[in-house]
Design goal:
Blueprint (H helix, E strand, L loop, with lengths): L16 E10 L2 E7 L8 E2 L2 E3 L6 H13 L2 E16 L5 E16 L8 E8 L14 H10 L1
Parallel strand pairs: 1-6
Antiparallel strand pairs: 1-2, 1-4, 2-3, 2-7, 5-6
Organism: Chromohalobacter japonicus
Pfam families: NUDIX
GO molecular function: hydrolase activity
């Protein structure tokens, strides 16, 4: 929920890209994936990705969750959004994603990395800040928000 300091040159093609993230909480743990691709390659974050044309936010969250982890879930509610800015080496914005967070209730499956995830596993929410993990922006805050719901 940070603001960007460097603004891109304006063109009719510069626009935020809507994407979704699935926040799955189970027994005090949150499901995270280590991303294979930019933005945030090699960082731990929620399973998620771009919303396909004609697809609902909730359907996209469940699809991405299953593709990246093999986990099945039900949607509980959409609860927040996070801006993510992908910058080049000079600090200019290359892409702007709006990640729409969807709280999901675990149904079945144990996480196995798939699609564009390098790894997938459960982490105790209470110890996320103390672990030596490269976390994507706002993961701790969104995980705590999801757990409170």
């Amino acid at each position: 929920m940070k603001k960007s300091l460097s603004q891109p040159e304006m063109s009719p093609f510069n626009h935020p890209i809507p994407a979704t993230i699935a926040a799955v909480i189970r027994d005090g743990n949150v499901l995270l994936v280590r991303r294979r691709n930019p933005p945030d390659a090699n960082h731990w974050g929620f399973p998620g990705g771009k919303i396909d044309f004609g697809e609902t936010v909730e359907s996209a969250a469940l699809r991405e969750l299953h593709e990246e982890t093999g986990v099945q879930a039900n949607v509980v509610k959409t609860f927040t959004a996070v801006d993510v800015f992908d910058h080049d080496d000079a600090g200019h914005i290359q892409q702007h994603f709006v990640l729409i967070a969807v709280l999901c209730q675990w149904i079945s499956g144990e996480p196995v990395a798939g699609d564009d995830a390098l790894d997938a596993r459960w982490f105790p929410i209470e110890s996320l800040e103390r672990q030596d993990l490269a976390l994507s922006l706002d993961v701790v805050e969104v995980a705590k928000m999801a757990a409170a719901l």
